[in-house]
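Reader question, answered in our methods column.
A reader sent in the components of a multi-part assembly and asked whether the whole thing could be modeled at once rather than chain by chain. We filled in our standard form and ran it. Here is what they sent:
COMPLEX SIZE: two components
ENTRIES:
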Amino acid sequence: MSLLVANMVTKRFGGLTAVSRFSMEIPERTIFSLIGPNGAGKTTFFNCVTGFYTPDEGDIVFNTRRINGLSTDRITRLGIARTYQNIRLFQNMTAIENVMVGQHSLLHSGLVRTLAWLPVLVEENKATTRARELLEFVGLKGKGDVIAKNLPYGDQRRLEIARALASDPQLLLLDEPAAGMNPHETTAIMRFIQRLRDELKLTIFLIEHDMRVVMGISDHVTVLDYGEKIAEGSPDDVRANPKVIEAYLGKPVEEV
Amino acid sequence: MATLTATRHSTISPWRSTAQRGVVLGLVVLFIALVGLVGAFAKKDLVYEVISVGQFLLLISGFIGGYITGQRSEHLGIAARVLHGTMVAVISGVIVALFLLLATTVDFRDILVNSNRDLFAVLQFKQEAPLSGAIVLVVVFAVTGLAGSLLSLPPQRWRAPIMTGLLVVLLIGLLADLLDVLLVSGPFKPLAEFLFPRKGISVPGALALFVVSAIVSTIWPFFGQVTTPARKWINSPGRKPVKFTLIVAVLVPLIIVLPWVLQLYLSDVMTNVGIYILMGLGLNIVVGFAGLLDLGYVAFFAIGAYVMGLLTSPDSSLALSLTFWEALPISMVVAGTFGVLLGIPVLRMRGDYLAIVTLGFGEIIRILATSEVLLPVIGGPQGILGIPKPALFGLVFKDAQYIFYIVVVCALIALYVSWRLSDSRIGRAWVAIREDEDVAEAMGINLVSYKLLAFAIGATFSGMAGGIFAAKLGSIFPHSFNLLISINVLSLIIVGGMGSLPGVFIGALVLVGLPELLREFAEYRLLMYGAALVGMMLIKPEGFVPAQQRKRELAQEDVFPEELEEISAPAVAEEVAS
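And here is the structure of the entire assembly that came back:
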C-alpha cells in the first residue's frame, strides 16, 4: 500500500516553475530517494508535502487523506516529520528539550492542567523518559543537557532526527542527512537510516546528493531535473539511465 | 584566531589606542559634566565633607579609564600597562582641564547652560584660580588612572574585594538620606549615628563599610564550599519540601513586617516596583518566552486601570460601584480579551514589523482615552476620579503600606503561573516559536493558538497591574499611560535577563526602585536608563540573571553529586568502549 501519493503536483514561484506535474508513490516501509541536480525542486517538493508551501496544482495524499492545503502543524500531527538541509535545531534549548518539543503533538497538557501542577507531572516524566530513550537511540546518550548549538555538527544532525522521531511519525522526510559528513560518518548514517526502516518500521523519504548513500540504501529512486521527473526505478535502473547521466554530467560534446 | 589578534595588536600601536581611549573618555566626562550631572551630584555628599558624588564621578572616570586600559593591554609588560592606563586618564584629564580654562575665560552659558560656577567649583577641586584648578584636575585624573591601572594587574581574586568595597560605599552613600531615616528611629540608632552624621557617610563609616564589604566578598566563596552537616542534610534527596517550608517560614513574616519597617514612602516605592514586577512577568511571557516583541504593552495596563475605574468609582459613567475584588478579575479578563483581539492582526508579523504595529496599538489606546469620542464614558483628559480603596472584612487598604500586600499576593500568583508555564509543554512551545517559527510549526505547534495564548496571559497580568494601580492612586488620567511605561517594562526584562523570572525582580528593583530612591536626579533618569541599557548590552547582554536551562538528563532533581558520578561513570565507559 502506498503511504504517500503525489499526483501531478505543480508549484510555481512567479514565472519559475519549481516543481512541474510531479507524480510519485511511496510504498510503506521503504526508503524512497529523491535526487537531482541543485535547484531541481527537491526541497520545494518536500516543503509542499509538509505544508510549508501549498501546491498550485495537483494533489498530495497521505494515508488516503488529501493533505495539500493543510497547515504544517496539522500535517505533522497526521504523522509526517522532517529534518532540514541546513540544520534547524532550537539552538538555545538543550538536546532533551529539543526532543521534547518534538513530542508536542503527542502530549496533551493545556493551560489548566499545567497550572494545576500535579496532573502534568506524570506526563512530563513520561515525556522526559521517552526523550532520553530517543537520544540514546540516535547515539546521543549523556548529551541531553548540552545546549543544541554547542553540539558538534554530526551530533546536531542526529539530534534533528531524534526530534523528528519524537512526534512518532509514519513518514520521515530527511533532507540531505549525510551533507558535510566524512565517509565514516556517512556509513554510520546509512546503517542508521536502515535501522529506522527495519526497527521503527518507518517509511523514509530521502533527499540526498551523496550517491553512495542513495545507491546503497534506497529501495526506490526518483530523479528530478528542472522540476520534472526524468527517471524512476531501482537504484540500478536509475544509475544506467542516460537521461540521468545527462542531467548530472551534461551532454556528450559531439551531440551539441 | 590567536594569530589574528596578535597581528591586530602589532599593527595598531598601543600609543594610538591609548590616545583614542583618552580622547573618548575625556569627551564622555565633558558630556556628563555639561548635561549637568556633575553639578547636580556635587550637592550630594558621598563621604561627609570629603567628597561629593559629583567629584566621585570625576575620580571614577579616571579610574575606569586606567582599569580598562590595563585590562585590555594584557599583551604588554606590567610597566607599559600602568603607563598606558595612566596616560589614558591624563589625556582625558587634560581635555577636561582645557575646557575648564576655556570656559572660565569665555562665557558659554548661552549655549551650554550647565557650564556654570557650580560645575567649575567641582572641576577645580576647591582651588581659587582656574589654572591651579586645572593642574589639580589633571593630577587627580593621573592618580586615579594610575590606581585603576594598578588594580587591573592582580588576578580577579584580589580585585573583587576592592571593587565590591567601592561599590558598597557608593551605593550606601547615594542612599544615605533614606537609610538614615530608616535606621535612626529603630534599634540601629547607634549604627545610623556612626555611619551618617549629617550628610553622606562619615569618614570612619566609609572606611568601615569598605573594609567589611571587602572582607565579606573575600570569604564568601569559601563559605559556599563549607559542607556543614545541616547543609548536607538539607541538600540530600527528598528534602525539597523541608527546604521549601523553611524558605516560606522565613519569607512570610519578612514580607508581613516589610511595609512597617520601610515606612510609607519606601512602601510606596516597593508597591510601584511590585506593579512593575507584575507587568514584567506578563511581558516576559510575551517577549521573553514567546519572543514576540510587544511595544504597546502599556495598552493592557491602561485597559485594566480603566476597567477598574469604571466599575468601582461611583463618579464614573457606569456608576456600578463594584468592590475592588469583584472588579479585579473583570479587569484581567477584559485586558486579556484585548490581548487576543490585538494579537489577531499581528499573528503573521515578525520582529521589527510586530514591534512597530504593537507600538501603534499602544498609542491608539492612549489617544482613545483622551479622545472626544469616549469622553462621556471614560472622562477624556479628566480621567476617572474617586476610585475607592480595596477593603476586606472591614480592613481598608488605605495606603501603600496596605496595598503592598495585594501587590505581593498578585505577584506571587503571576510568578506561580509563569513558573509553571516556563517548564511545561506550553512553555517549550513558546520557546520553540521564539527560536524558529517555521520549525516550531513543523513540530505540530499551532502558531495561532500559542501566540494568542502568550498575548492573552501577558495582557491579563498587565490588566491586573493596571487594576491595582488604579485602586492605589484613587484616580486615573490618560497621560499616566504613555509609551514610556512599555519601554520601562521592556528595559527591566532586558536588564534582568530575557525569559528569566528572578531577572524580572532584579530588573524592576534596579530600574524602577533605584530611580525612585534617587528622586533628586529625576531629570537624568532617562539618560541613566540609556546608559544602563547600552552598558548592559556591551558588558552582559544576557542580563543580570540569565534564564537557566534546566538540567534533565543526568542532574535530575534530588540527585546528589556523589550519586551522579556513579550514574555517569558507566555511561562514559560504555561510550568509550563503543
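What stands out: The two ends of chain A are 44 Å apart (CA to CA). The first helix of chain A runs from residue 42 to 49.
Send us your own complexes using the same form.
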